[in-house]
Automatic annotation (TrEMBL):
Keywords assigned by UniProt, alphabetized: Signal
Classification via InterPro entries: AL/BT2_dom
Domain of life of the source: Bacteria
Domain 3-keto-alpha-glucoside-1,2-lyase/3-keto-2-hydroxy-glucal hydratase: 39-248
Protein name: DUF1080 domain-containing protein
Length: 250
């Protein structure tokens, strides 16, 4: 009885209404009539990686695949980086509301980047795109123990409330709202970041961090959305899953 109650308590959607885990899975990667009317679009169809490619490549790297209705990355700590290079959308976006769910194996590390400018001029996505960090609360080191590098943070720039993340193996919900420079992050339904890009305060903030070495970081107002696959932290094999990736242009 206790186990049954625990499962019901854990199964929550963004707004806090209880649903069964079976119902949550059945509804994955779909839009309700209301969402369609509001202008939401799926960035992942639940079946293949159409609409995505690996950064600076024509197609997804071979370590990215679709499993049980989720984008899944399985990688080791070695191998050709092209195989697990960050996944990016084919399309670019300016002002948007983005929602997605993710989970990981213990101690893994990743992130969701946006305003990524794809060009041979930049060897990595993080040279241009700010990141909403994904990290295991329990054991990802050093990220889970360092402010500005914990799950939900605007990575290396602004720290969030780390307690809003579920431990490895459980689905977490991210939402990024980017509205004409007003940036808000939500983790599991709680607002964790609220800031503004492209003003003097933003430029001063970047100047105090490692991103200062990349003069174009955080300057683009249109760009790709990216799922990070290049971190090698975690227990082997390192696995990440993403699903319910939907976006509404503002």
């Amino acid at each position: 009885m206790f186990k049954q109650l625990s499962l019901i308590t854990f199964a929550l959607v963004f707004v806090g209404h209880p649903i069964s885990s079976t119902a949550a899975t059945a509804q994955a990667n779909t839009l309700t009539p209301q969402e369609k009317a509001q202008g939401w679009q799926l960035l992942f169809n639940g079946q293949n990686l159409e609409g995505w490619h690996s950064y600076l490549q024509k197609a997804p790297g071979k370590d990215w695949k679709v499993e049980d209705g989720a984008i899944m990355l399985e990688r080791s700590r070695t191998g050709d980086e092209k195989d697990f290079a960050d996944l990016v959308t084919n399309a670019e976006y300016s002002n948007f509301d983005l929602k997605l769910e993710w989970k990981m194996t213990p101690c893994a590390d990743s992130g969701v980047m946006f305003y990524v400018h794809e060009s041979p001029k930049y060897s990595e996505t993080y040279e241009t795109g700010p990141e909403m960090q994904i990290a295991d609360l329990v054991c990802t080191k050093p990220d889970s123990q360092v402010l500005y590098e914990r799950s939900g943070d605007l990575f290396d720039l602004i720290s969030s409330d780390v307690e809003r993340v579920q431990e490895a193996g459980n689905w977490n919900q991210f939402e990024i709202i980017a509205d004409h420079g007003h940036i808000q992050f939500f983790q599991n339904g709680y607002k964790v970041i609220d800031t503004y890009f492209w003003n003097d305060d933003w430029r001063k903030l970047i100047a105090r961090t490692k991103f200062a070495q990349w003069p174009d970081f955080g300057t683009f107002q249109t760009g790709h959305i990216s799922l990070q696959g290049t971190e090698d932290k975690g227990e082997l094999p390192i696995r990440l899953w993403f699903r319910n990736i939907k976006l509404r242009q503002l």
